[in-house]
Amino acid sequence: MNTPSRRHILASSAALAALAAERTQAATTPGVAPTPTAVSPRETLRLDLGWRFHLGHASDPGRDFNFGAIQSGFAKAGSWNWPQAPVTPYYNDADWAPVDLPHDWAIELPFVQPAYIDPNRDDQRASHGYKPLGREYPDTSVGWYRHAFTLPASDAGRRLSLEFEGVFRDCRVWVNGYLLTRNASGYAPFRVDFTDVANLGGLNAITLRVDASEGEGWFYEGAGVYRHVWLVKTDPIHVPQWGTFVRSTVNGAVAAVDITTEVGNQSDASRLVTLVSTVFDPDGKPVGMTKGPVIARPRHTVSAGQQVKLDKPQLWSIETPRLYRLETELIADGVTVDRYSTTFGIRTIHFDPAQGFFLNGVHVKIKGTCNHQDHAGVGTAIPDRLQAFRIERLKAMGSNAYRTSHNPPAPSLLDACDRLGMLVLDETRRMGSDPEALDELESMVRRDRNRPSVFLWCIGNEEPQEVTAPGGRIAETMKRQVYRLDGTRPVTEAMDFGWGGAIGVSNVVDVMGFNYRPAAAATYHQAHPTVPIILTETGSTVTTRGVYERDVAHQFASAYDVEAPPWAQTAQQWWPVCDAADYSAGGFVWTGFDYRGEPTPFHRWPSVASYFGLMDSCGFAKDEFYYYKAWWDETPMVHLFPHWTWPGREGKQPIDVWVYANVDRVELFLNGKSLGSQAVVKDGHLAWSVPYAPGAIEAHGYKGDKLVVRERRETAGAAAKIALTADRARLAADNADLAVVTIAILDAHGRPVPDAANTVRLSLSGPAALIGMGNGDPTSHEPDKTDTRRAFKGLAMGIVQAKGAAGRVRVRAEAEGLESAELVLTTG
């Protein structure tokens, strides 16, 4: 990473004020921040653009802007008297690196090979993907952020706050030199009211110190302000953050929508407020309204209950994710003092211990995946559109559920799940009943309880205490907390042992969660037939995209469904059992996407990423993807693999040819000659042993006697050209929207070259930027923030993000010895 030098220079007030004005304008660009309207006194501005970043130091105050050495400059009121301190408004941060949010500084760090690896033990440094974070890397584990902005004098009398969706981790927040909060969790959202220290009519500065030298998980977690930050302005009488709760009960053709609204009064006088709640249907039409008086006591928050009844409600489901909107209006003395919007859905959920899960009274088998929150090119700093892209890819496989392993997710992920129709198992990071753990649990439940996608709360994952008496008591406390805040969804825990013990968690949760033990689930069901069951984590086949023989020397697993760790199962070991078990609600495969860290099965350098994904870290499908698509999606399909380019294999050992299909039978052809047909066995695969001959191999799928689908693989020649495609051609000009660009290496006839490893350079012209690249190779040490990437097994990826102007974006790909390619995107 290009780190600026460490200089402390006091700039002129005029220069910094100009810079602040520039950043404020960028932060309020249409599409990046909602534009306030005259009818609403609430303003919500997304502060993603115009930040500055500088590395600090975890152990040397002299290299950490004297943090920890000059108490008065960081902790005491009046620290603005020390302008050389980075927490003050007029500190000159011109030599800090400009960054936009979301930002993960760890993704920009190099991979670091350990000096020594014990050949007899797994390398624990591999779990975080060999990035230089942690106490042994103090010079890259602390980061400082600054953001300057102006506030108009007209904000006088308003409450001003900052809402942080997630900062990894141990974040201190100063505004205008005043230390306002410290938040330890890297996953829990938090809020800061800075009204008392705001500089109205002038310059303001946010300063963050983020310390990622301690982790919270055993996987790549990133570092920095990797989610959005919001500036919220409200009247003293307003709806607090997450201050509405919408529940619905469906009875025939009528839905009763129960609304609980919190009304906060941050003034010193009681006010009589009229609370107006209006419900809009999925088409934006108002379909119900209620209003009533609320007495808002000074410096208090009160709750008011209301109900709206709707005829013929449009239910939220996986296939038809209909979303309603609640508009909350507070009126005092005839003036609207706040408007607050809440998205919700109307649906019913039910777990039956004998028949599994029901959504809106219809049986649904959970076909889920577990996922960590990182992606090639960007790390944990996943833009909103990329969150939606990932959900779209999972939906294309036939998946209907997502487990947020092992932490509360970004709101944008849940937005995508609500909008696209993906059920969510929402999971807290830490199982505990101490105040901090309960606060984190409360923030997750309050934030997410209106979302129709969320159907289960998970209070822990593979906790050592799950079979102890203290563990049971902790679970009881957490469950009480969830019920107090919600009560409309059951509670589970992802357990890997101890089900049905005399003490512990299994006596507390509503739905029993099993990790990697389908046989144990069957045994438990026989002994406890009244307890619902779900497989919270299962599968874990290890594969490498495009590799068809286990290659220990290069640390590649085979793409066939043949290898899983000792504690896990292959796809065809767990899914047929789960599918046939009516009592099982379904399960969550580990994982939907490859992720950094935990490089099972090799556990050591040079592997820096996992092999569990049904897709690689770019979202390119592995062959295993199509096994699940065959049995999770009813669309007729055949998937034939491996590729058919094997020079030198003529006359040698035959090739194992597999087909995943959901039709009645499949016939295989080599160069036009039939190799026989086989009947498809439910939840299985078909296999032929085929002597290699160059040409074409083809699979024909039949329903009865009718050919309904076919797939063909042809022998490719030498790499000759590049092909570019994008998941979408038109982007919003909002400094946020993006396209995922696929780079494919083809031969002269347009056939994919399966082993191509050409180095490709992307260049852009027009109002967009290349924010990252990847190739899905779990052993690659190439940078993510780059314009050049080697293809892996014929593919690579670039992420192109729109800027704030309309126009045409030309993406050009070049590689030595290959015909170049161009792709045109439109922003506007």
Structure description:
With 828 residues, the chain is mainly beta. It is 12% helix and 36% strand. The strands form eleven sheets. An eight-stranded parallel β-barrel has the order 24-25-26-27-28-29-30-31, surrounded by five helices. Strand 22 and strand 23 form a beta hairpin. Helix 2 packs across helix 3 (411-420). It is globular and about 90 Å long. The two termini are 32 Å apart. The relative contact order is 0.08.
Q: What's the total helix number?
A: 8
Approximately what portion of the residues adopt beta-strand conformation?
35-45%
Judged by helices, strands and strand pairing, the structural class is mainly beta
In terms of quaternary structure, the protein is: single chain
Low-confidence stretches: 1-39
Beta strand count: 47
Rounded to an integer in angstroms, the radius of gyration calculated over CA atoms is: 28 Å
Strand line-up of the largest beta sheet: 24-25-26-27-28-29-30-31
- Taking the alpha carbons of the first and last residues, their distance comes to 32 Å
Q: Mind describing the biggest β-sheet?
A: 8 strands, parallel, barrel
Fraction of residues in H or I helices = 10-25%
Which of globular, elongated, flat, extended, rod-shaped describes the shape? globular
Average predicted local confidence, pLDDT: 93
Summarize the structure.
The protein has 828 residues and is mainly beta. It has an 8-stranded parallel barrel with strand order 24-25-26-27-28-29-30-31, surrounded by 5 helices. The chain has a 6-stranded antiparallel sheet with strand order 5-3-6-11-8-9. The chain starts with 8 loop residues before the first strand and ends with a strand.
